Amino acid sequence: MGYRVAILGATGAVGTEFLELLRERSFPVRELRLLASSRSAGKKIRFGDREVTVEECTEGSFDGVDLVLSSASKSVSKRFAPVAAAAGALVVDNTSCFRMAADVPLVVPEVNAEAVKTHKGIIANPNCSTIIMALPLYPLHKAFGVRRVHVATYQAASGAGLTAMRELREETAAILEGRSYRRSVIPHQYAFNLFIHNSPLLDNGYVEEEMKMINETRKIFSEPDFLVNAVCVRVPVLRAHSEALNVEFERQVRPEEAYEVLRAAKGVEVLEDRDANRWPMPVDASGRDPVYVGRIRRDVSQPNTLDLWIVGDQIRKGAALNAVQIAEVAL
Fold this sequence. Notes:
The protein is of the alpha/beta class. It has two domains: 3-125 and 319-330, Rossmann fold (3-Layer(aba) Sandwich), CATH 3.40.50; 130-314, 2-Layer Sandwich (Dihydrodipicolinate Reductase, domain 2). It is built from nine helices and 14 strands. It has helices spanning 13-24, 74-86, 109-112, 128-144, 162-176, 208-221, 255-263, 282-285, 316-330; strands at 3-8, 29-36, 44-47, 50-56, 67-70, 90-93, 122-124, 146-155, 195-196, 227-234, 241-249, 268-270, 291-298, 305-312. A seven-stranded mixed sheet has the order 3-4-2-1-5-6-7, sandwiched between helices. A seven-stranded mixed sheet has the order 9-10-8-11-14-13-12. Helix 1 (13-24) crosses helix 9, helix 4 (128-144) crosses helix 6 (208-221) and helix 4 crosses helix 9 (316-330).
C-alpha cells in the first residue's frame, strides 16, 4: 500500500525538504519520481534505503502518479500542474500560480482544512509569510475577533531559494575579506544590509509580496474584507522568517488571554524568557516545525490592540511542511 508520489522541483530547497518530511512523517510512498529541469536530470538522490534518479519533467511524467508536490517556478507550474491533474494526480502547488484562482483552494490545514474537499485536482500552498502569520492570527481571530492587523516581515534568504542562501554566505565572506562580489539572485547588497522585499513594485506602491499576504489571508480566512496591511523586508538571515504583528481586536484583550489561546493552538509554540529579554529568533525556528510566538504586549498607542513577535521556518511550515500536511488531509 502507498501512493505514487512525484516531486516537481526536486533539487531545490523546498524539494529537498519535501523528501526529508516524507521520510520523517512516514508518508506512505510506494513509488517516487523526482522531476526537475534538464540541467538536473541524471542526478541521484537518496530517499531512505533507495537511490532515485532525477528525471527531466515532461507531459508524460505524471502517468500513474497519485500525488504531485510541486515547488518549481510559476511558469513550470502553469505548464505542468494542469497536465498532472488531468492525468489523475492531486497537485499541491507551492508557487503563486493558482493561489487566487476562484476554483483552487488555498489551504493552511490548521485554519481551513475543510477547503481541500473542494479541489478539482490542484490545491494551492500559500505564500510562506502568509502561512507563518496565519497560524497564530487565526486562533486569536476565532477567540476574540480581529478588526485589523498590520504585519512587518523580516524575511530570510531561504525565501529566495538555495542560490540566494549561497550568495548570502559568499557575499558575507567577500565583504569581510575586502573582496568584490557579484550577485545573480538578490538585486542589492545582502550581507550587512536590509531592503524592501525584492518582488515587483505594483502601481499601488506595494510590492507583490505584501499584496500576497493581504489577498491570501482574506481567502484563507474566507473573509474578503478582512483588514490586513503589510510591509515586507529582506534581512541577511539564512533561514526562518520573523514577523512583527500589530493586532487590533473588537474588544480589549489582555496579553494573558492571548497567551492562553496560543498555547493551545495547533502548530504554534510560545517561546520566551522575559527575565532574560529573550524572544523567538530565526536560530530557534530553523529546521523546526512550529511557528514560535512571544513578546505579546499591549500597544500603548491605541486601545484593544496587542503586539506579537513570531518566527517560523520558511522552508518547513512556510512551504514544504504545509504542502505535505495538505496532502495528508486530502488523501
